[in-house]
Design goal:
The protein folds into 3 domains: 4-256, Alpha-Beta Complex (2-enoyl-CoA Hydratase, Chain A, domain 1); 294-469, Rossmann fold (3-Layer(aba) Sandwich), CATH 3.40.50.720; 495-589, N-(1-d-carboxylethyl)-l-norvaline Dehydrogenase, domain 2 (Orthogonal Bundle). The chain has 29 helices and 19 strands. A hairpin with a 7-residue loop joins strand 18 and strand 19 (573-574). Helix 11 (261-275) packs across helix 25 and helix 12 (301-312) packs across helix 13 (324-343). The model has no long low-confidence stretch (mean pLDDT 96). It binds (S)-3-Hydroxyhexanoyl-CoA.
Length: 692
């Protein structure tokens, strides 16, 4: 089987692309397709050509792995598309699975497009920080009109073939065998002349107001990003310039976007997200358990949110509480959440009922006896958790997974109270658990491979991004955020205002800075932990400026007063009382206040994350730097276009990061020091070798 097979079906030449798994436009594909067009050109008996994907999909786009190759070595998608557009015999794209990015661009340069009903078509390049670079920005507006083309190119989400048919993007939906249908279509249209070419059409529906509104819109949806504005510029050119002008500009702007740190960051995350699911020792043959029924202990905010993930995936849930009141409250919150989604038109009332019907409330833990997985989501107290796991050990059926949603506690210690520690795992959901995509999968010392593999598969099924981490205080995300919080507090002690520290992170693209986040989470939580830790360690009662804010009764957003004031309930406004408290605090403690630049604040905050991340890597708590990046993007709002904190450090150069840490009085972690000295990046670090 060659990369592109040529088969004659009478007077139709069928070109089948075989480049598994997704028929990306990799080296070999353009050569094969050109050879196919050569054959069609040279054979008078061939009257039309069909291009189809072998395996599960049409072309999923340019091969993202080749983006950093020198131009001469990269597969020439544009060259092939230019030839296809000018081809003198009709060509038909036969689409199943997905026609994405360069794949849809190939289809757009064909004379016709036919598709199976369940196929999907889209231009997702914006999600990789680039733009459709092989004619998409010029052809799509000429078929579906400018408003729809902008929606597709700026949102990056595919549309269904049925919608594409209505829009004229697909000429025919094929009900039976796609290949047969496409060949019949090609034959039926073999003699139509002149050949309809999208490049010769006009792009309708654009206006100065529309483009202005689109530019305004991306300020909110794609704040700080380059490629969306380039996409709008190109769509505007499609309405005002000849095709050739737009096509040439697109090539230039594509290269500009592709070579930007933003695109490097987004491509890094694309692959990191897929890598995160790969664990040494786990193979396709590792046995997994099918999860048919779940049990959840605790119907509070976390338990309820977790339950919704299962219900959304059609998995029945039994939810346990200790009192009828708590159970009723939990259920009514879940129902309200679904009803709100229904009000927004994203669920029907029937679907709401369908989901609620999958939920069984109970006060009896014994009702969990048939669950394939049981997730404990009660408050963070080791004794309470141990008690629950002791009872679960007696109740759960053999083979059931026993999971804890702890965010800090030692999963090994929890597992030790059961007779089956190999079945115990941490599943750390992030709040709100029905929304946040991250799932830290905490592998304890004795967790079996099968339980780990099942948890990874479950994460995919409930639409989470699962990242495997090891046991330590706070695992990966919270352990790093503690260092970040410490640094933020220090910045303020030294003279920064809380809003300055927050602004430093906004400048990097984070929606919230450290203090806005603390106010939202509730300041009393950290306060109680600090007080408790000091007491246990026999140290004096902590008296930081943040402790004083809590002691003044300001617990954060929930009390409408924290580090910030919340006059309208949600929006933080700098508080005069915090300024006064800080002035007194600094005076009492003899702290010198100094001007702190935004650059210093950003560096100190991000590099404190990076430094702790380096320690986490060295200890093997996270496998790869990319795993940490995925955690920060899906769990903590780090902007994907920065690629995550570790990638950001790579982009800045680890030598510079180490030097900056030293300048600010911090010691670079040994791994960071080592890589900086070797002139390497975290991404280049051979973690498998380092761990033997
Ligand atoms: C583009 O086209 C630019 C042009 O406009 C202009 C050029 C001049 N390249 O996601 P999965 C790999 S930009 C290379 O797990 P699924 C992926 O890494 C491109 N590799 O499967 C994974 O590898 P591994 C625009 C790719 O079924 C394996 O395939 N296109 C590519 O859940 C399976 O992937 C896109 O952005 C690629 N293009 O989802 C589409 N795509 O097994 C990106 C996938 O080693 N792709 N791989 O981990 C997707 O959205 C999903 O992969 C897709 C399948 C929906 C296709």
């Amino acid at each position: 089987m060659s990369t592109v097979d040529q088969t004659r079906e009478g007077d139709v030449l069928v070109l089948t692309i075989n480049n598994p798994p997704v028929n990306a436009f990799s080296p070999g594909v353009p050569e094969g397709l050109h050879a196919g067009l050569d054959a069609a050109e040279g054979d008078a008996g061939v009257r039309s050509v069909v291009i189809i994907g072998g395996g599960r999909t049409f072309i999923a786009g340019a091969d993202i792995k080749t983006f950093d190759l020198p131009r001469e070595q990269a597969p020439d998608l544009r060259g092939f598309i230019a030839r296809l557009d000018a081809f003198t015999k009709p060509t038909v794209a036969a689409i199943h699975g997905t026609a994405l990015g360069g794949g849809l661009e190939v289809a757009l340069a064909c004379t016709y497009r036919v598709a199976t009903r369940d196929a999907q078509l889209g231009l997702p390049e914006v999600k990789l920080g680039v733009l459709p670079g092989a004619g998409g920005t010029q052809r799509l507006p000429r078929v579906v009109g400018v408003p729809k083309a902008l929606e597709m190119m700026l949102g990056g989400n595919p549309i269904k073939a049925t919608e594409a048919k209505e829009l004229g993007l697909v000429d025919e939906l094929v009900e039976g065998d796609l290949r047969e249908g496409a060949v019949a279509f090609a034959r039926a249209h073999a003699d139509e002349r002149p050949l309809p070419r999208l490049s010769e059409r006009r792009a309708e529906g654009g206006s100065p107001e529309l483009f202005a509104a689109a530019r305004e819109g991306i300020r909110k949806t794609h704040r700080g990003q380059l490629s969306p504005s380039l996409i709008i510029d190109l769509a505007e050119m499609a309405t005002s310039q000849p095709f050739q002008e737009g096509w040439d500009a697109e090539a230039r702007l594509f290269m500009q976007a592709k070579d930007s740190p933003q695109s490097r960051g987004l491509r890094h995350i694309f692959f990191a997200e897929r890598e995160a699911g790969k664990i040494p020792g786990l193979t396709r043959d590792t046995p997994t358990t099918e999860i048919r029924a779940a049990g959840i202990i605790g119907a509070g905010t976390m338990g309820g949110g977790i339950a919704m993930n299962f219900l959304n995936a059609g998995i029945p849930v039994t939810i346990v509480e200790t009192s009828q009141d708590a159970l009723d409250r939990g259920l009514s919150v879940i129902r309200k959440n679904y009803e709100n989604t229904a009000k927004k038109g994203r669920l029907t009332l029937e679907q709401v009922e369908g989901r609620m019907n999958l939920l069984t409330p109970t006060l009896d833990m014994g009702d969990l006896k048939d669950a394939d997985i049981i997730i404990e989501a009660v408050f963070e107290n080791m004794d309470v958790k141990k008690d629950i796991f002791t009872r679960l050990d007696a109740i759960a059926k053999p083979g059931a997974i026993l999971a804890t949603n702890t965010s800090t506690l030692d999963v090994n210690e929890i597992a030790s109270v059961t007779s089956r520690p190999e079945q115990v795992i941490g599943l750390h959901f992030f709040s709100p658990a029905n929304v946040m995509r991250l799932l830290e999968i905490v592998r304890a010392d004795k967790t079996s491979d099968s339980v780990l593999a099942t948890s990874l598969a479950l994460a995919r099924r409930i639409k989470k991004v699962g990242v495997v981490v090891g046991v330590c205080d706070g695992f990966v995300g919270n352990r790093m955020i503690h260092r970040y919080g410490d640094e933020a507090r220090k910045l303020v002690e030294e003279g920064a205002r809380p809003q300055d520290a927050d602004a430093a992170m906004h400048a990097l693209g984070l929606p919230m800075g450290p203090f806005e986040m603390s106010d939202m989470a509730g300041l009393d939580v950290g306060y109680l932990i600090r007080q408790h830790q000091a007491k246990v360690a026999g140290k004096p009662k902590p008296d930081g400026w943040l402790d004083r804010i809590v002691e003044a009764g300001r617990k954060g957003q929930k009390t409408q007063a924290g580090i910030y004031d919340y006059p309208d309930g949600r929006k933080p406004v700098p508080a005069a009382s915090t300024d006064e408290l800080l002035t007194t605090y600094r005076q009492e403690k003899g702290l010198q206040s100094r001007e702190i630049s935004q650059e210093e604040a950003t560096e100190r905050l991000v590099y404190s994350l990076v430094n702790e991340g380096a320690r986490i890597l060295e200890e093997g708590i996270a496998q790869r730097a990319g795993d940490i990046d995925v955690i920060y993007i899906y769990g903590y709002g780090f902007p994907a276009y920065r690629g995550g904190p570790m990638r950001y450090a790579d982009e800045m150069g680890l030598k510079n990061v180490a030097a900056a840490l030293e300048k600010y009085g911090q010691t670079p972690a040994p791994l960071l020091r080592q890589l900086a000295d070797e002139g390497k990046t975290f991404e280049q670090w051979d973690w498998e070798k380092a761990r033997g």
